[in-house]
Amino acid sequence: MKVGKIVNLLSGASYERLQGAIDTSNLRQKVIANNIANADTPNFKRSDVSFESMLEQEMDRNSSSLIGNRTDSRHFYIGPKSGSMVSPQVTTDETTVYNNNLNNVDMDKEMSQLAQNQLKYNALIQQLNHDIKMKRVVVEGR
Amino acid sequence: MVLNISNSFNISASALTAQRLRMDVVSSNIANAETTRGRYVDGKFEPYRRKMVVMQPYQEKSFANALQSELGEPDLGRGVKITQIKEDQAPFKQVYNPTHPDADSNGYVSMPNVDVLKEMVDMISATRAYESNVTALNASKSMFMKALEIGK
Amino acid sequence: MMIQNNLLAGVTPKLTTNIAQNTATPAEVTKQFSDFLGEALNQVDAQEKNVQKMSDKFILGQVNVDQLMIASEQATLSLQLTTQIRNKVIEAYQEIMRTQI
Fold first, then answer.
1. How far is B9 from chain A (nearest CA, A)?
2. Bigger pLDDT: B100 vs C25
3. Residue A52 and residue C61: Cβ atoms within 8 Å?
4. Alpha-carbon separation of residue B91 from B50, B87, B108, B114 (angstroms)
5. What is the pTM for the complete model shown?
6. Whole domain around residue A106: which residue ranges?
7. Does some domain include residue C41?
8. What are the domain boundaries of chain B?
């Protein structure tokens, strides 16, 4: 008797992006905590996590509305792809200097980033809950 | 229209930074209220000159902001930034004190043009501004948290 | 709101007209209901796709969180409504099949 495969219900490009955003929030939390801990270290430069701008570029690149006309099976496929995904990167911010000890950590800005990151994480987890709930309504039939 | 939580947070955070810097300047003025040898100019010592901050509305240079201003969409408000720290050009106070090491031939000493009472008022103003910005930030945060409870 | 108006508006007039006329054959009623259910499922699918688009926009920071939450709740409620309608119809069918002649 041949048994079929059970497919992952939680999958898809949109779900992958949600997972990526949650990973980014985790990474950002660590980076901001590191910045705050080093608020008085001489010559320390603060770091950032870049994900959103890279993802936006990738999605813009993949959502062009030009669709290539394929008259032969060997032609390349030109058109929008929905599977755009990037991974988060930690970058160092060398731009500003605030103090005499060449440390550019601004405590207020770090605290504000911390709060924002927390809120965004909460919202992403809520979104994940929504995905799970939708699948569960279908599976349980109620 | 790009309207999201990080805008309001960044604006409040920029105000907090500006008020903290203003507080630093006020502290510096108060600490140096009696400093007669602030700078060496033209072969003589000049007393400390009172510093003042210049604040201006400011928005971080990012692609989203530039695009928005080019598209002519309504300005969603900017944060504040301290663009200059200027020196007050008011004349120095002349105090009669012939026994002071920096007294000139007539016995007058040039004291810094810092009025401590004015600095105290500035300090209170900076503190209150800091507190109100913290309140604004907390309000943004609780609005967001409430939005997460939609439908629960 | 949209799907509620569509679904309930779709159900009630059709059933009352059928009872009043009493000329619709069982096959026709079945077809009408399957069309209606198919339409409802299409709408649920469209709403879920909208939620996914909004979620992408939220990750990029272009949409507010309240809009995202409202869209999510909209999709969930539509899916639950459709599922309940399907359950009730199946229950009614089984009830009828259990009738002993």
1. 6
2. B100
3. yes
4. 10, 11, 14, 10
5. 0.79
6. 13-51+87-140
7. yes
8. 5-147
